[in-house]
Amino acid sequence: MTITTERDTYAAALASSAMLDALIDERAAQDPTRFRMLTGDRPTGPLHIGHYLASLRNRVRLQEKGVESFVVIADYQVITDRDSVGEIGDNVRGLVLDYLAAGLDPARTTIFTHSAVPALNQLMLPFLSLVTDAELRRNPTVKDELALSEGRPLSGLLLTYPVHQAADILFCQARVVPVGRDQLPHLELTRTIARRFNSRYAAGHSVFAEPEALLGDVPLLMGLDGTKMSKSKGNVINLRDSADQTAARIRSAKTDPERRITYEPERRPEVANLLTIAALFRGKSPAELAEAIGDGGARRLKEVVTEAVNEGLAGHRARRAELSRDPGYLTTVLHEGNARANEVADRTLATVRAVMGMAY
Ligand code: TRP
Q1: 169 lines ligand 1 (CB under 6 A)
Q2: What is the pLDDT of residues 301-333, one digit of tens each?
Q3: Is the N or the C terminus of the chain less surrounded, counting Cβ atoms within 10 Å?
Q4: Which stretches does DSSP call E strand in the chain?
Q5: Cβ(330)–Cβ(89) below 8 Å
């Protein structure tokens, strides 16, 4: 008997992601809908450099290749694991600012909020009929989120997380979903929902195509204290932080007492993490940077990282500041994105109701 572990699944997903990426390179410009992309964020707080390096830059890259793109600001998802929506309005505007500053172009990328698209949310009902409660309970993303939510009982919204996420993806017929490793089980269930919908309700016709995960090639970054990046732990550098705040954060980062800087991820994880951050901003390898720092010690390492981050983000931060002076423009971007998402969702829902015999 073969046992498929999360690691095997991840390795397989990585290999097919590489293939998908090559296909996008070759064909996206000629056949944009074949590679229609959807991804998104939960508006729970400001975006940090981890988001920038692993996801924002990649979205812009795909947009520039001619991929038709959708970005959902998943506002309803905020309350999967907490009791209040918090500063939701500010958080949503902050996301839009970072998207635009990073180079997402609202003429080519539809940026929208989940709650503003009723037809998308209505897909939840037929989709819920396609999954069992056991499937939802054993979904690793649901289990992990529950474990992280500090003893809270499992809400219906958290339990059905993969189903509403499937609606986010399938409403616009997305074929490519750039996600992190933690979201792979969700995507698997999305594929299952698409398949079951087609066979149960559409007599085998392909109403929904199965989307594919596009995993990034950026390694998982840690926070500046060597633990998981987390807004609440204050161990992250936010995109909106000033150059001085960034310098102060990096000065207080954890390192180790060895003077000579080397890139040894297993033995020196904190130093390796800092080198990786600088390397990603500089487009160099971490080992190369370590070599150049040599005996400069933690102090020189931190200077190098600070410069790399601040120079790498200077343009982004300047554009962000400029855009934030025009709140009316942000509102327009969202309203237009929402209008476009609604058109697409209305069409999909109409098809769904028609194939289910519900077009009265
Ligand atoms: N759940 C994702 C996150 O926390 C955000 C998200 C919402 C998403 N809908 C999506 C990602 C659809 C990919 C596809 O990070």
Answers
A1: yes
A2: 999 999 999 999 999 999 999 999 999 999 999
A3: N
A4: 37-41, 69-73, 109-113, 176-179, 212-215
A5: no
